[in-house]
Specification:
Elements (H helix, E strand, L loop, with lengths): L2 H38 L6 H6 L15 H4 L2 H10 L5 H26 L1 H30 L2 E11 L5 E12 L6 E3 L5 E5 H6 L2 H16 L2 H14 L5 H4 L1 H20 L3 H14 L17 H12 L6 H24 L6 E2 L3 E5 L5 E3 L2 H4 L3 E3 L3 E4 L1 H10 L6 E6 L2 E4 L2 E3 L2 E6 L7 E4 L6 H8 L1
Parallel strand pairs: 2-4
Antiparallel strand pairs: 1-2, 3-4, 5-11, 6-7, 6-10, 8-9, 9-14, 10-13, 11-12
Helix pairs in contact: 1-5, 1-6, 4-5, 5-6, 6-9, 8-11
Length: 451
């Protein structure tokens, strides 16, 4: 393999990945609009459902291969709405908007093919965002490692019928800075408490703060934060994902507040007073964390959180588990629908193409017509001279030596690779031509198929 082949392989990968994830970026705008709309209207007071809304973003990275973008059923709907005399503006405008939206998704793939420089910019942006994220997490990990170990707390996971499973012991560290209590770490989580909170709060209040952070860990919120950061890196051209990170954290924080009050068996008033006390202790000086127990997003956010706490009503744990199961089933169903409505990773092609002997001109690009004169198996290509002669005469081609290309695979319509090629000489053949060939199975084609 020469350098040119590697260069073409990399260019194809860049174009293909940018075409897929560029559509994911466009889709993320629609999902974000839906999430913000529902969390402010129908699900404004449904704390658990509002938190699960953000899981819709799991769909975004998988929509790039949807057949919808290439088949566009809304084109016919728009045409019918325009030609039907009884259709008013209320029918034409939505159809036109949907048709335009699908066209935009489709044209993005063509734009990536025609302007490959945009692919390099996008992938460099993804790489740069990921490096910044890694640097921030390493800095945070080093910062936490310098803090004093306070104690180790057992973390229990409640299971059915009152049973509990010990997940492990979580180190609790003390920070000399005035920072809000927080938790960090994916595989080895830790809890960080400010010294000022430990010194001015009772043992019971300190345990309640630790319980709040342990519930964050048990509910998997640290993993959700990490996945959200990865999604922001992958879809970096959508800056609203970063701007709405606060809303995402708010909704997870509201869930954690409800679970903490329920499991601690404290009154919402006591929990709210502790929140207010912690905020007063941290008011002076600079706070260095953005993971909020006491809240540092301004008066309005703090007031909203206190109001939600005071509106707490006990809930049934079985009901919360059922809600989680229903949401997971719904999300799995949506992912299944997206998968079945998308093109597979690759599709084997059964097409033929005729190219002149110099390899610089396509003579016939009609597979159905060529199949009348050409057939093949895994070892040989069979050409019927009379049928080929008639086909060449029909297309006005007088050349009798040419290349026959066939096979290959398709990733997306207009994007693919692979295939075989044989040289055909029909000048003095009277019987059926049998041309042996070998299927090419190189490493680069195998990588493209699984990409």
């Amino acid at each position: 393999m020469n350098l040119e082949m590697y260069r073409q392989f990399l260019n194809f990968c860049f174009v293909y990945l940018t075409a897929l994830f560029g559509r994911s970026v466009l889709c993320s705008y629609l999902i974000l609009l839906l999430v913000l709309l529902l969390r402010q209207t129908a699900l404004k007071r449904a704390v658990f459902f509002k938190g699960f809304l953000w899981s819709l973003f799991v769909l975004a990275p998988f929509v790039g291969r949807l057949k919808l973008f290439y088949e566009n059923p809304f084109r016919k709907v728009h045409h019918l709405a325009q030609t039907w005399q009884g259709a008013g503006h209320m029918a034409v405008y939505p159809a036109a908007a949907l048709n335009f939206l699908i066209k935009m998704f489709y044209q993005w793939g063509n734009f990536c093919v025609e302007q490959p420089w945009i692919c390099r910019i996008y992938l460099l942006g993804v790489l740069g965002s990921f490096l910044v994220l890694c640097r921030q997490r390493r800095k945070r990990k080093w910062l936490f490692s310098q803090m004093t170990l306070y104690q180790e707390e057992p973390c229990w996971l409640r299971r059915g019928f009152g049973r509990k499973t010990l997940l492990g012991r979580i180190p609790v560290r003390v920070s000399e800075w005035k920072m809000t209590p927080c938790s960090a770490g994916l595989l080895h989580p830790e809890i960080i408490l400010p010294r000022v909170a430990i010194d001015h709060c009772s043992k019971e209040e300190t345990e309640l703060m630790i319980l709040h952070e342990k519930i964050h860990i048990r509910l998997g919120h640290l993993w959700f934060y990490f996945l959200w950061d990865l999604l922001r890196c992958l879809l970096w051209p959508n800056p609203f994902l970063t701007l709405c990170t606060g809303y995402f954290r708010q909704d997870l924080e509201d869930i954690c507040d409800r679970v903490t009050i329920q499991q601690s068996k404290k009154q919402p008033c006591e929990y709210g007073k502790l929140l207010l006390k912690t905020a007063q202790l941290l008011q002076e000086g600079q706070m260095v964390s953005t993971l909020a127990f006491a809240g540092e997003r301004g008066y309005r956010e703090f007031k909203r959180r206190i109001c939600n706490i005071m509106a707490f009503r006990p809930y049934r744990q079985a009901g919360a588990v059922c809600i989680s199961g229903i949401c997971l089933l719904a999300l799995t169903g949506m992912l299944t629908v997206v998968s079945h409505s998308s093109y597979p990773r690759y599709t084997e092609l059964d097409q033929y193409i005729l190219v002149n002997a110099q390899g610089n001109k396509v003579l016939i690009n009609d597979s159905e017509a060529l199949k009348q004169a050409v057939s093949r198996d895994r070892q040989n290509v069979y050409i019927e001279p009379e049928a080929m002669e008639a086909l060449l005469a029909e297309y006005g081609i007088w050349e009798r030596t040419f290349y026959l290309g066939f096979g290959g695979f398709m990733k997306l319509p207009g994007m693919g690779g692979g295939g075989c090629c044989v040289f055909v000489d029909c000048r003095e053949c009277q019987d059926d031509l049998v041309i042996p060939y070998e299927e090419q199975k190189d490493l680069l084609s195998s990588i493209l198929k699984v990409l």
